[in-house]
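Task: complex structure prediction.
Instruction: return structure tokens for all chains below.
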Amino acid sequence: MMTTLAQSGFPEAMTTLTLYHYLFISAVMFTLGLIGFITRRNLIVMFLCTEMMFQASGIALVAFSRFYLEYTGQVFVIFVLTIAAAEAALALALVVLLFKRNETLDGSVWSLLKG
Amino acid sequence: MEAVISPIILYAMIVLGALGVLLSLPRARANFALPGFLIGATAGGVVLLALASKAVAEGGGGLPNLYFYLFGFVALASGLRMITHPKPVYSALYFIMTILATCGLFLILSAVFMAAALVIIYAGAILITYLFVIMLATQSPTEEMVEEQPVFDRVAREPVLATISGFLLLAMLSTMLAKGVPMLVTPSATNADEILAQFPHDIEKALRHRTTMGDEGGILPTETLARSVNEDGTPGEFVIDVANRTVLVQVDAEGGATRTVAWPEDLELGHVQAVGYELIKGHPGAIEIAGVILLMAMVGSVVLARKHMQIDEDAKRAQAQSLASREGASS
Amino acid sequence: MMISPATSLASGAADAAAAVGAAPTWVLAIPFLPMLAVVLNTLCAVFGNKTKLPAWITVGCLAGSFVVTMLAYMALSGETNTVTAWHWFDLSWGDGVGQSMVANFGFYIDNLTLLWMMFVTGLATLIAIYASEYMEHDVGKGYTRFFVAFGLFVFSMLCLVMGDNLLMLYLGWEGVGLCSYLLIGYFYKKPEAVAAAKKAFIVNRIGDLGLAIGVMLTFVHFGTLEYEVLFNSAQLQGYISAVQEGRAGDVPLMAQLIAVFLMIGAFGKSAQFPLYVWLPDAMEGPTPVSALIHAATMVTAGLYLIARMLPVFLLSEWALPVVAWVGTITALLAATIGMAQFDIKRIMAYSTVSQLGYMFAGLAFLSSTGGVFHVVTHAFFKALLFLCCGAVMHGFAGQLDLRKLSGLWHMKGWRIVSIGMLIGCLNLAGVPFTAGYFSKDMILAEAFVTPGYGYSFLGWVLLLTAGMTAYYTFRVFFRVFTGPVQYEAGDEHHGSDDHSHEHEAGDAHGHDGHSHEDHHGHFHPHAPGMRINGVLATLSVLAILAAGLYFISPEKHGWIGDMLEESTAHNIYTADHSSAAMFVIDGDAHGAHGHDSHGHAGDHGDHAHGAHGSILGYDPHKVMYYISAVFGLTGILIAAWAHGPKGLVSGFIGGRVEAGKCRMDGVAAKLGPIPRWAENKWYVDEFYAFIFVTPLRVVSHIFHMIDKLLVDGLVNLFGYLPRMLGRGAQPGQSGVLHGYALSMAGGVGVILFIVAWVTL
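Output:
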């Protein structure tokens, strides 16, 4: 059966596009998010980078779901989205609070745990 | 099994990509954003091309493959741009682009509902919140000030170390993936009809729709799907034969005669149906927990917001007092 | 002494074994009445009693205990009975012999036990009455404390002698040691008393270790701690018959070691050389304590142990001779020291050590009757002597120096004390027809009768010691009780326990509360009251009557012999004269000692003609009466010449006109430094300090330095290293989020790299 762009259900196993392709995309995206999280000092951008890492894990989960012809991976992505939403709500509230405290979004200003 | 991609190309492109990311990260004096982006894009493109060439060599190809490379490249390129752009607003917009590209990948992966949900939740809700906060938390430039990004947006922190460790991680991940993915056992396909049999009303609806359309093989309005009878006399399960794709139909309401009707040929399992079934059937507890987490997040946000207001008022009061005392001292 | 039929050891033991029965439950009241006194007195202490109630509680309970003991004597005398209060230890880890350990909180009542119970409870009652007056100055907390410890002591002592297994004995042994410690240190504000208490406790530790090892070895070897099982075990009987038949080598070394270790325990508790040093110092405690614990009862625990375990002691061919030698050395050494002391309580203390030496020697000479008889008579007259000394101390504000006291006989109100002292001294000196005379003679005669390792030499030494005993005893009597009336008050007021009580107590006594500050002028000694006098009179009568014990059933060596016939000590009593049979092969006691070929008997055969040894060719049992009387009277005469008052016998004997001067001063001057050495106790304490204490102190200093430098250094190093490590790693803790994220990412990368390197 010829695969279409948005086919429904899982007709058959993955063929030319292997799991590796998707996982590689996922890994690169995760790495980019990680580098962004480390290098960027703007709190909001840092949280954006964590969202990107969530995305990377989402791709991996859906790819596995497709590979194993199961829906559990996708269900998991739903929960990831839920957590991401909750996290975004809280994190952004905190960011606003921190900004009110210090009038800056620079994350490296906050170093109360300095040894 | 032969490697999906030549390791030499892979590692070379990873190093090249690292260089590109390093260059494109914002820095204090010189700005190499464009060449860095180009180098990074080249590296990503070369890797994707290498992957594609392999697929073409194996005789696959076709539209989905093209879409995959397209969406993959867009996702990674906009991701790179997102982490390197000095302006948070642009970063957020690039992230929306990444999400859209990811949705494309989800579509190729037959995850229709996930793609839709991603667009609605991420691009629609979360990113809007981000943008809102970015607007809220950025100091509005005054008239005489040249529009200029604050220094913490213009200068990256420890770009070299971050890039090295990040791409070391990537190299290791891709090495292990290349080694590990071929080891995975491809499972046999799930019989979608078994899931479909859990939705007898959909089958009945499809069969009635056939009759309405005037086709043969549907069921009449007077007919209903037959149920088995439990030991205590109550009606039980619908009688559905998954293997032959047939249902048992009761000819008249009082019971008696039955007949076997085949499913419509084009009756297929919907994606939302499947995911919903898996979600409700397999993870009811997790749904409850997720609900609690969302509730907690909401309560937490409210508490944080209230606290912040109180602090504000305290600060105002303190300021008013200090002002009053200063005036008293001067007069 | 008479000749008993040579009953075999084994059959004697078998006779004892057959008679083990169940005692009635009411005998449990004997140990538990003193315990009741402890509980009630503790309640008094809790409720802050300020009256003499504790004394009367104690006296009542102890008297009750004594009455029950007498009832038990009437009902159970001559039998061997056991009664169990509750199951204490009942462990089992198999079915075989020695795979279970039973030690009940039970009591084993035979004649030996009854004997000890009678004089312990009887004397404790009398001394409690005495103490009720003696401790008056301390009514309140100290008074209650005293009687709590007193009751606890009696309970422990009864556990010791009545216990039906060695573990009970050990419990009582440690209990009396604890009470001894508590009571010596009664005046805990006095440094000497505290030091003495510690010394007693520590020296006793050495002996108690021996006892503990002995008890453990008994269990390991015989598989039981219960007397009943132990004495009837085929193993022990087999050993005894082996020894009896001259196959002493068949007894394993382990069984012989038991006796040696038990002996060490006995030496510690009964103050024998070299562990006697604690007893004289123990006189720092109140005098009733000295009388009861350190003269009459506790120090005889060692004797009891040996008497009880005599069958085990017989197994070792060395244990009893060592006991004999140690006992004799102790007797002589303590007597020489006693002769040179000036503190009358100390003199009595050394006399106690010396007399204990006699008792040990008596037991070792296989004359358990003599040894135990001496225990009983000594208990009475030594308690009497101590109580008299206590009365003097009580009346003269702690004055104990015989150079500062004189002529008490002539003072009003001191007559009963003087007579009591005289009776005690006569007993101790062994004047004919006193109880002490008969019991001492029994030991001395046996020394010449029994063949053994130089026993007849020991006999002469003991005779000499008897003379010295008479001398120093009457030295005290003549100096303190006769002569012109002179006295100086002591520098303390009944000890210095609680000065807050002193003033009220002083008023109650009818003399100035500050009397101890102005010695002569206004000091009025107060004569003892009715209770002290009553107790002294009772004890005097008892000490005299004790002589009568010898004449009850004389065919069995007096009443004591009669009593011991049915106890474990009896086993050896019957062997007393067949003991010679232990050392000869043919078992013929008569005439066998002439042969050199037969072990130890041969070595000392010249002392043993026939069944008996001889003294100067006569039968020791007969001539000893005269010889010891001569020695005793000579000692008294010398004392009278040197210390007697002017006008005792027309100036030739006596002639002392002052409290502090006597003829012996001149003699002592001629002897050079020897009297000074004796006064300083032959520097034994200093020798121990040099040999044991100083090296230990040096070693402990060394260990202290090691602990401080090495151990503490190591510990501190382990504390220092992480701190320095932390200081080194401190810059890593930048506190900035990015740093942590970077190190986490880098760390994961490196770990993955290593994993990939190793696995791929």
